[in-house]
């Protein structure tokens, strides 16, 4: 009885049917963008200062320009208000007092300017931003700035918990059912976010969005790789991730056109209701159907694939078996197996660290855009564009050079670029943006490579468990990174980038300790994993060398 891969080789590994499935699932990948990086625009932090009663009237009476008003009435104003006092403190004086001097207002009120007491912003803030964001609506600045960190951490906490449960649903009830349920839940949460009036409910709904959205994206990734042949599986997986990059460009354009966060949320959520048409457009995974013993339904989908691809199946193909059925005995996966032997321990801990680092640097560099001094829309655009050459470099190099060296280099480049970005003066903003884009390209490569290299370093029976455990550190990194960026930037704007530098350089060095998997057969047992690092060349080359030696 042939395997599904044998049948796909006959009816088309990436024909018209698979291309159509791939295209409609890429829409799902692109739609995930606002959930994953939406904090840049939903939680944009504009320049701000205390709202002070009486200042506007005094400025109008004195005929001050905007800069003169800020210089006279805002503590330590330096042009961009980059000091905590200028953003979160105000002079404790009564600006409505009659007889205030227009040339030296503080001197006329208190005499000695150096002794003017400072107090908190009791009357709110003034924001230099024509639109609205979570920050401006709920005043998430100064003493309440941590609430923005919590907003983003909650969605990553949802990713962490939801990935496990959504993965179970996908394995238990099918990829298609999982997709439809999670798309509907994500749509409902996204719409409710537009209308809820309080910060607490926004955080709760954001958590629920995270609970279903990443698992939905992952289910789409699994489905698109399960309907194509093995020769196209890795390329399709990389291109599916590239669709996310296309989503970044679209999201940036929409955010530029709609600078009000609730309208923006509504605009990016409404199109996702069309994804419910997947009920009619998408097939169930034939691999999952076979694993559940539903061969008749799997054969019907295989027949549809052959018909759509204009191929004919041989008449003797009456059923399909899973590749795993060839194994003589089945092993039960265990968490202990991930650290049972020296090489398994090394692989597990290095992969966990690299998942963590990739998430911290990738999300951190995106969040850094929102707190930088440049144009947030242009900087976001530039950093999104570099993801396309990153995917191209991966496709070109992984089967020529291998996995280990490009992966290590991408981490090292990302770390070095973060250091350069931190040290370049703000006056040379264009050079700062270039360095940040190089860092973004490096960490994008590292992120995409850890996704598929992870599967190549574990034996078959524990592969899914290994990927699930290691990739969970990605979400842990996502929970932590808002606090790294938004808290440390108040100490020094470049401090988060220094942290990213250290993490990236260590990750690059650790990758070099992993075995090269280019040209290797996927390991079936723990013993195969232990032998990976001892092999200096692919098996085929060793056999060829042995034959040559024997002939001599």
From TrEMBL:
Residues 100-519 form the Major facilitator superfamily (MFS) profile domain. Keywords: Cell membrane, Glycoprotein, Ion transport, Membrane, Transmembrane, Transmembrane helix, Transport. The chain crosses the membrane at residues 21-45, 177-196, 202-224, 236-257, 263-282, 350-374, 380-398, 405-424, 430-453, 465-489, 495-514. GO terms for cellular component: basolateral plasma membrane. It is found in: Basal cell membrane; Basolateral cell membrane. Gene3D superfamilies: MFS general substrate transporter like domains. GO terms for molecular function: xenobiotic transmembrane transporter activity. Belongs to the major facilitator (TC 2.A.1) superfamily. Organic cation transporter (TC 2.A.1.19) family. This is Solute carrier family 22 member 2. It comes from Pterocles gutturalis.
